[in-house]
Amino acid sequence: MIKNIFFIILVLFFLGCSQKSQIKKGLTANELHSLLYKDVKNNMLDDADNVLMELEANYPNSFYIKDDLLMLFYAHLKNEDFNLAKFYLDQYEKRFASIKEIPWCEYQKIKIDFLAYQNAYTNQGKILSLLKKCELYKLKYPNSTFIYEVNTIYMKTLLTNKYLNDKIYKLYMKENKKEAAKKYKTNIPKNSIAPNIPWYKKIFYW
What we know:
Layout: H1 2-15, H2 29-41, H3 45-58, H4 64-78, H5 82-95, H6 102-116, H7 124-140, H8 147-174, H9 178-182
Helix pairs in contact: 1-3, 2-3, 2-4, 3-4, 4-5, 5-6, 6-7, 6-8, 7-8
Keywords: Signal
InterPro entries: BamD-like, TPR-like_helical_dom_sf
Protein name: Outer membrane protein assembly factor BamD
């Protein structure tokens, strides 16, 4: 029961000031599940989030919750609502995932972090964090069917970090700070392609 209350509080935190959907009182678990499916189908995700809270509050042991968490995960991921997508996936993993599903859940979290990183040459902390997560995944799940995808994300992120280091190195050299620059000196692989950023964002980079 405490877990369910905590879940509802967290959802409210993520939703912030979103409008409340008009949910009729007294609906059965099946009716709420059907309403949630309809809202997702119509891309009314704020309403769908509220329906899940209603389901959790009135039917905390409903078997529909498991499927609805995954449904909302996929829906928010499709809409690039990465924080909510990761939140629902995390709830699914903690409460319902089998041992065999854990590598899939952890891979999806890595993929979300990768997709959410959209500003090349910024926030090196996120790049390093993603690299660490990929390395840990490969250690924990070396035989995972998703190891190829994780390796691909790892290599793309590693290359992005190299280009970022190169940018920082050149900036320090331009400022004649050679000692500081040494830390960032790196070798860019031949025939590699630099991370692409839109022309209108380039004015904000070095």
